[in-house]
Specification:
This protein is mostly helical. Helix content is 83%, strand content 0%.
Length: 46
């Protein structure tokens, strides 16, 4: 397991790939939360 972390932090391609993947997943989760909140708080005309 020690070798994995050493390789992970020393290889910029692997580090940035997981970093950008984390950013993309974070944005997806934010937009899912945002749209669910907007739909839940929507006022429909009577």
């Amino acid at each position: 397991m020690d070798v994995f972390f050493r390789d992970f932090f020393s290889d910029p391609v692997l580090f940035l790939s997981f970093g950008f993947l984390g950013i993309v997943i974070g944005l997806c989760l934010f937009f899912v939360y945002f749209f669910i909140k907007k739909v839940h708080d929507d006022k429909t005309p009577n």
